[in-house]
Fold each of these.
Amino acid sequence: MTRESYLKRSLGTTLSRRIKESRVLLVGAGGIGCELLKNLLLTGFGEIHIIDLDTIDLSNLNRQFLFRHEHIKKSKALVAKEVAQKFQPSTKLEAYHANIKDAQFNVDWFATFDIVFNALDNLDARRHVNRMCLAAGVPLIESGTTGFNGQVQVIKKGDTECYDCNSKEVPTTFPVCTIRSTPSQPIHCIVWAKSYLLPELFGTSEDETQDFDHSEDAENAAEIENLRKEAQALKDIRGSMGSEDFAEKVFNKVFMTDIERLRGMEDMWKSRQPPEPLDFATLQEQSGSVDNTISLNDQKVWNVTEDFVVFKDSLNRLSRRLKDLKEKTSEKDVSPILVFDKDDVDTLDFVAASANLRSAIFKIEPKSKFDIKQMAGNIIPAIATTNAMTAGLCVLQALKVLKDDLANAKMVFLERSGVRAINSDSLKAPNPNCPVCSVAQGRVFIDPTRATLNDLVRDVLRLQLGYGEEFSLSNEIGTIYDPDLEDNLPKTLSELGVKDESFITVVDEEDENPRVNLELVIRVSQKLDEPAATEEKKPVTLERVMDIPRKPKAATPPPTEQVNGTTAHEPVTGKRKREAEGELSNGYERVKRVASVAVGSGDGADPIVLDEADGGAILIDD
Amino acid sequence: MTDSFPSALTGPSSKERKYDRQLRLWAASGQQALEESRVLLVNSDGPIDKQKTTVSGVVGVETLKNLVLPGIGGFTIVDPASVTESDLGVNFFLEEQSLGKSRAEETCRLLKELNPDVEGTFSTTPIAELLQDTKFLPAFRLVLVSGPVKCSSLDLLCNASRELGIPVLYTHSVGFYSTFSLQLPAEFPIVETHPDPETTQDLRLANPWPELLEAGARVRDLDTLDDHQHGHVPYVLLLLHYLEQWKETHEGNVPSNYKEKTEFREMVRAGARTNNPEGGEENFDEAVAAVLKSLNPFSLRSNIREVFEMEECQKLRADSASFWVIASAVNAFYQMHRVLPLPGSLPDMKAQSADYISLQNIYKSKARKDLEEVTETVRRIEGSFGAKRSPIPEKEIEVFCKNAAHIKLIRGRNIPRIDRDVTVQSSVRMALGIPESLAPISIAFQILDAVVDQLQETGSTVASIDDNETWDKQTQRIIGVLKAEDPEYVDEEVEEQIKNATQELRRTKAGELHNISSLTGGLVAQEALKVLTRQYVPLDNTCIFDGVKSRSEMHRL
């Protein structure tokens, strides 16, 4: 009996050999990732690449069995490789402590793998890998778990549905005024503490983080202006961090002065109960006997004096931490900030205490720290058993893929109860209207110094590919061109955020028989590599002219506005012509537009997102 | 999940942080139950043939891994085998240096590394010998057995466990197939069944108590409210308000059938103000959506009625388990009021916060009052037995009252054996009748057990697990047993399916595939967690997994 005797007997020699010769990529070394790595090793996979951006946290240890206490804060990918390699020395393992979205992991790199496994914890990365695998023509095994539920899906370009063939759940959002002026539920106060107060004091302030839904701003212009002033005043207080009366200043500002101002707006409280400001001195006096250690009891719902004590204590802890960080960073580096992390006790205590104090003011039910952690962190319950089952199902699907037996590969669901805990369903054909997989693809080479948007629009799309007048272009930062948005035409593509290996989506908006969406992969030509070519070469060239099929004539109207995952909130760079002329009649939902092109610094057209990582229908295991 | 942490856990919060993600599934009470549990894994029982073939026990180790990670108190691995080269290729919890050493010792050592909070021991003595010491088994809360195990050992273990009320999980994993069965004690009640929150809402709108009625009556003249107030009347009060109006024209009755409810729904819908930008009101939408499910008069569900009617509940003894004492007290409450104690939770709804909180308090204080009444009865029962009983913790009574409507009682079954038990035979026949049933796989595993038994007890000195004669004989025998009563259920097609399933087991010489065993280890551990935490409803009693089809099936055999 040899090491592989069981395997060969069960899988047969042909499949065993294919497994041994295959090269697979595992994206994510978390709950499912650890299990998958173990199973892939013991199923005989010859070469496994594993990538994860995260480091190990204490709360991972109840299921991510490759990690121990001494590994906390180390790279998941590197530790997973090191630990697993010991158990199977003959397998080639490669680990990357990196973001899968980095440019180095381009389409060509993806194409070197036989199978890609997604064991991810967020929608954004899932979508990215889905897109890369479609572009590279590599089969993808997508998986996810939440509590006792799990799901596995096989995705192959042209044969099956892709991850984006079905629309995914949109994260919950709240209007600014609900959060800042008229909260009525515990979650409103928690979001206030997490996304307003904490960042204003220790992080990047609201104006820079694009964290609020401003779509109703116009109706509330006066109040919005007041809120801006409030935020500015808080910023001034931030300057006195470290001084003895810092806590008192912050407290008086947000739990007294701001509340008094709100209370003064009588219109607001005609039919709502007005808020009651809190008094620092009174609470200080009452809280004499309360010990700081109350914050350790996360199951108890604290009373107001306990909230007060935890508020002061955690504010202190955070101030000291930021001070230490600042001392360690040199002048020219980016100034350090603290961000909310559900597993970081200091930020959690601060958010829990602040949220409860605000709840007391607005007569809203307070919550325990345990519950606030779940609400603020959007925690997905996770246990080892579900991960073990899900990873096992991933490998079973991978075997079907390696046998070219896609017809028998399945979509598999795990459920807590029911007659069958594991249910499977046949894979579905691609959705012909899917904005991601039912697209044509092309490759464009650009000279980054010269190539303008106009070169792409005129030379390539109109002249070479035959596009008419009505179409739009979008990339990561939003819509960069459409018939009403011509301001960007003279700009270089680089100015519009177009980088090497990035995507531009072209949506044909002709009423009559439009083309399917075209997805262009951008390659930035390296001049040094091709010295001869630069002279005559146009700044933007198409790899080859391809035929772009027309959209199928579906009974359902084509989802124009949701194309490319674009929601009504997607920022648009540049000024719209018709809008500028005051014509608002072509059926577009008018939302806030962004006139500047500086990437990531718009004035915040994004809604408040509870946890944007968790928007998918498949939930996560982190 | 607001119960406070047992004092042993409140110290350093690192433990809570480590287990945070699972505490959200079974709370501190479940975690405490886990930490008080010791699990026995019988991972092999000596060679299964005369060629020293041994059960490789991967599924056992993978199951244990999934219990060590969430933090059971401790485990013991019983396994007389030594580590072989082929073990290394299939078992992740063995390493190069383990070769030739005791497999129990090596797997125990590597599993312990997963969680320093968990204590682990091992033994290389066969289980039958260990059981001779009557103090051995009672130390455990759960027994895991990796099959195939010879019949005599399994019988010893299962009988002893049944007498002690210890649950047993018996697992097989071979090639692409696996199966496992759960033997529970004769009565296994589960209080915290975690039903779907949608189904647990108990608002008592058709059976309101005075304080709730009064709150409903305060919403008198909706027309006088301004738009904001009108749009923020909690839907529960809206429904109460319209119910009173309805009763006036319906001889004091609430809408009882579908037709009446639909009429009533239209009446509520018509009350919404639509002259606003939204064209309606959220609280009215909520009220309309709740009509069909929230207006049913209280009725006792069969699961709890069954509990009330059981002899254990009717005739309490001084040593009755606290479950039966509380059940009896709740039954007395039901006989008196014709409703169960109110759970007291209120779903989220559109409302002003102050109104919501005051409504919430009405539900909470009624729940508290009901709990007090049940507790009084419990104390009276305890008193009637004199000093023989120590008082049941209030917490336990409270949890029972909160979950009363969804309590489930499972009557434990034995590990199914086709060749012994006629009721198993008939349920297997039933299972075979289901289209695309996985039952043939379960039958094939029983044939494997029979083959192993024959090889051990009577086989020649060289008999090996791939001995065709033994396989054919046992296959025919088991099929014969199934046909004996009623040949119709096992036609040629079914017989062919059973034989095909045995082929997978024969082809792989009873060897495990790591991936299937790992997956099965997840399934088995999940049931083990339900049993140990006494939360969620566990398997009753057999699960079959087919890795070719990526599908599982549950059967009551």
Amino acid sequence: MNLTYFLFFICIVVCTLIITYWAAKRSGTTSHFYVAAGSLSGLQNGMAIAGDYISAASFLGIIGTIALSGYDGFLYSIGFLVSYLIVLFLIAEPVHHLGKYSLGDVICSRFPNKNIRIVMGFGAFIISILYMIPQLVAAGLLIRLLLDIDYSVSVLIIGGLMTMYVVFGGMIATSWVQIIKTVVLMSGTFLLSLSVFSRFDWDVHRLITKVTEESVLGTSFFYPGHLFTSPWEVVSLQLALILGTAGLPHILIRLYTVSNRHEVRRSLMTSMGIIGFFYIMTLVLGLGTVALVGSTVLYASDPTGNLAAPLLANEIGGDFLLAFISAIAFTTIMAVVSGLVISATTAIAHDIYHHVFKKGNASEKEQLRVAQLAALGVGFISTMFALGLENMNVTFLVSLTFIVSASSNFPVLFLTIYWKRFNQSGVITGMICGLIASLTLLILGPQIMDPTHGWIRREAILPLNNPGIIAIPIGFLAAIIGTLFGQKQSEEQYAKFYLKAETNVTTRREH
Amino acid sequence: MERLLQQYLRKKKQFLYPALFFLFVFYFSLPLTLAYFPDQMNQFVPYIGLTWGWLYTFLQFIVTFTLAFLYMWRARELDRLADEMKQEEKR
């Protein structure tokens, strides 16, 4: 390992540890630990949301996909951005008004029930863990590749760091790691994009001509159809993406870290701005990779295209820029996995321990201690899993997260807030059927069942890579059917709840 | 209170229903037009050096931000109504 790399990494690790130390000194209450005591501004939280959301799969994966598949790769990223409108229009403000620390709080403010807590806590835990493990595996492989450190050592370093941030610094440290990541990631990709343009004398046409010359796809690089073959596949993926964000626990709990609805909206506007700009830059970087590195070289070094950004950096700025981009990728992963650790921790310590085991009677000190223990446990377990899964292809788990959340959390949240007739049995059946349906359909699909390289070596039963178009309606239908079989709730209670959801006004009067 | 709430919900729905409808139609039309009219989508738009497919994709960004800004604008009015309701509830 050479010195430039080492210095960049040490610099990031030291910076984030100083933040954690600083955060640990002011994080004395559960409110500080879970939601930074609602003390962030909309701008800060917006940057943190972007930092929580843009994973290594976006940073490395989408650039590579654009470089290899052209137009379709860019099409992929649209859904990630548009999904924020669904969060902004339908989910964000009610979630902020109704909950305290978790999504379980939101549902239980309408249906205060032990079983619902368990189901919601379990759902949030599963989604966060399933998302965290592939991130850790990818991180381990990436660091091994870039720094030439052993896979287990790199996973242990990342797992240990993310656990430390959360155990000692809680949401404050996590938020600031995410904010720093956004600043570093955006400035790095912006710098890289400018360098790409400068190589072509700021002439877009020259860049495009060069891309068509260098890509194996030729002019058809700019035409659709290289990644998605069936229209159902695209629609299904887009549906899961657009509804998935509105059910992701680690994104939605960030809405508690600001103090009022105005700041909630500003958070989302800020993060949309950052994410939109980021995806435009991935397009430039994808084109730049094809033009300057060439798609044959890219494919030869890694058939998934994940090395596009590092290769491009190496081509433009040599070893130094490559070290910088690797450090960015490392920070990107750290910020995302820390956000997932805190979301899984909230599910265990707040929903399950505090509300189910202790029936809401655990003392402040006890809650904080349990939360820290839970964070330690979550970090430990996911690191162990990641260590064991070195040689497994687990990238499909990332797309799984959006499908699971769009078919379980999203329907339940949406119906709880907006459907007068909805009830407890609807919540339970919706969550459970949504979870089971999305997992089963994925197992039956080509991501797991594949005659040559699948976990199950046989022809896929379901031809869809992304079963969202089937799983999401199942989640909604199960919630609705469960409701029709359950007991009717009083309409007056819903009127009060809905008033609170929309306006944050708590009424004592009867209507 | 009841009057203010009605006003609040009317204003909200007035924006939200058309906005959501438009969003879904506009968003899902892109993959569908690509799938069913690939030749037309690969034609170049007159005067702009882009194909219809790329133009539509970039429009998604513009439309997304326009809708978000419109909502922010409408939400300021809604905030005022919500504050009034809060005042009334305190009395």
